[in-house]
UniProtKB/TrEMBL annotation, chains A, B:
The keyword Transcription regulation applies. The lineage of its organism: Bacteria, Pseudomonadati, Bacteroidota, Flavobacteriia, Flavobacteriales. It comes from the Bacteria. This is Helix-turn-helix transcriptional regulator. PANTHER family: TRANSCRIPTIONAL REGULATOR, TRANSCRIPTIONAL REGULATOR, MARR FAMILY. The keyword Membrane does not apply. Gene3D superfamilies: Winged helix-like DNA-binding domain superfamily/Winged helix DNA-binding domain. Keywords: DNA-binding, Transcription, Transcription regulation. PROSITE patterns: HTH_HXLR.
Length: 115, 115
């Protein structure tokens, strides 16, 4: 396979790749997105499903996901007010990227670790 | 678009995605891979091309890329001995992943920043 056309990144390509990595960076965003993949959830539900995350961290990560328009936060007109979180349409565009990352991660682990 | 099948990650999926992110993490691996995409290079050549990287950092990043079998280091039998770096065949498998990351990064920047 011609190695030359492997990483056809250029300056703007590198910035775009870094953008993608920054949005998904850290230990918590993927498990949170996975939890919300099953549907709209309350804060405590997500907190229970994402093992080991503190409420402070979950709140920060949800804000970042909201800022990146991957998660939508809805305050319901109840008393006391209830807050719900769900994935946005923009989050749907992550699928191809996450599939490619998962596939390469599995291939790489096989190459390096042999299983 | 059905949001439910957006992020079909499960535990092993999340680990594989994290593996991919860990291998490419940081500010330097992508520019180093891009530099080596043009062919075999000496340490100083890479150092000149990857703006702002210290020799200590370049040495560390090259070791990590070598450990992940993405870069091959060759010591030439000359006096003094010369050292060369090149991408491996395994690095060729990065192409689809980096394309997907670049495409999503561009799409995301367009969505968030509008350009």
């Amino acid at each position: 396979m011609e190695k030359r056309n492997i990483v056809k990144c250029h300056a703007s390509g590198i910035r775009a790749v870094k953008d993608a990595m920054d949005v998904l960076s850290g230990n918590w965003k993927l498990p949170i997105l996975t939890s919300l993949y099953e549907g709209t959830k309350r804060f405590k539900q997500i907190s229970r499903e994402v093992e080991g995350i503190s409420d402070k961290m979950l709140s920060k990560e949800l804000k970042e996901l909201e800022m990146n328009q991957l998660v939508k936060r809805t305050v319901l007109d109840t008393f006391p007010p209830k807050v719900e979180y769900e994935l946005t349409e923009h989050a749907a565009t992550l699928e191809k990227l996450l599939d490619a990352m998962r596939d390469w991660g599995l291939l790489h682990r096989q190459k390096i670790v042999g299983k």
